[in-house]
Amino acid sequence: MNETEKLIKLKHIINEFGRTAVAFSGGVDSTFLAKVCHDTIGENAVAITLVSPMNPKSEIDHSIKLAASIGIRHILIDDNNIDETVAMNDVERCYHCKKIEFSSIMEKAAELNFTVVLDGSNIDDLSDYRPGKKALDELGIRSPLRDAGMTKKDIRDYSRELGLETWDKPALACLASRIPYGERITIESLSRVEKAEEYMRDLGFRQFRVRSHNDIARIEVSPDERSRFFNTSMMDEIASTMKSFGFTYAALDLEGYNTGSMNRVISKK
Question: Domain holding 242: CATH number?
């Protein structure tokens, strides 16, 4: 199946859904999906975003701007609490979190008379440990990008053709993914990570994570950005700033950024 066939298939799938709600984070996948849904079924599509401590405020603000640029109706759901099953942060955290998040989105969608809820999962998402997929399957959430056979590259290529600014946006994940399994998640720990990553973004780094290991900030940056750290003034500034956010130590991961690096402990077990 070539790229054109995949897009045709995606539109065909969306047309069959009727009134459709897109779980919208403002990332590469959900933005592309929201755009295609709006272009295909117009007012029968809505974007719904859950506002919670798990998601950086800057990303929520960006999602609002993106939805406006697409033209799709955008609904925000406020949830300022962290459920205890999520706060415990066991290896099934993503399952519990997705179950809660998408249940809220489904409830809002039903209230607005939208009968189907979509997420932006794609073929490449099947290659990592993703317990959240089980929650989506249990709730009956549909993943049309995956059903159309689309990879992340397909989505980025189409996004570029459609003029979406997210086409080259770095991969993102919720803030909880920065905290190792077994370490309790709190609003304070999420806020500390959020501040640290906003700071790294302000320094001009594109693909990175600040992993929180209790009082240690383990910084991952893309392999081609590691050389920027070979500057003692920058290292001193980063270390000092990380400590001002509440970390006691700041460390650079020599291997660089790796998506899903926190899941390595699972494979070892």
Answer: 3.30.70
Give the pLDDT confidence score for residue 264 in this predicted structure.
Answer: 56
Residue 186 main-chain phi, psi, to 5 deg: -130, 165
Partners of residue 216 on adjacent β-strands: 213, 249
Whether residues 41 and 128 share a domain: the answer is yes
Q: Tell me, rounded to whole angstroms, the distance of Cα 31 from its chain centroid.
A: 11
Determine the structural domain holding residue 143 and report its residue range. 3-168
pLDDT for res 258: 79
Q: List the structure tokens of 182.
A: 């077994």
My answer on whether 217 and 260 are in the same domain is: yes
Say what the pLDDT of residue 265 is.
Answer: 58
* Domain CATH number, residue 45: 3.40.50.620
CB atoms within 10 A of CB 202: 9
Is 137 found in the same domain as 70?
Answer: yes
pLDDT of 139 above 80: yes
Residues 104, 207 within the same domain = no
**Residue 124 pLDDT:** 87
Q: Mind giving me the DSSP string for 70-126? A: HT-EEEEEE-----HHHHT--TTHHHHHHHHHHHHHHHHHHHTT--EEE----GGGG
Contact assessment for residue 119 and residue 30, using Cβ atoms and an 8 Å cutoff:
yes
- What is the total count of domains within the chain? 2
pTM of the model: 0.90
Say yes or no to pLDDT of 254 above 60. Answer: yes
Region 244-255: mean pLDDT is 96
- Is the separation of the CB atoms in 21 and 116 below 8 Å? yes
pLDDT of 96 higher than 70: yes
Q: Do 240 and 151 fall within a single domain?
A: no
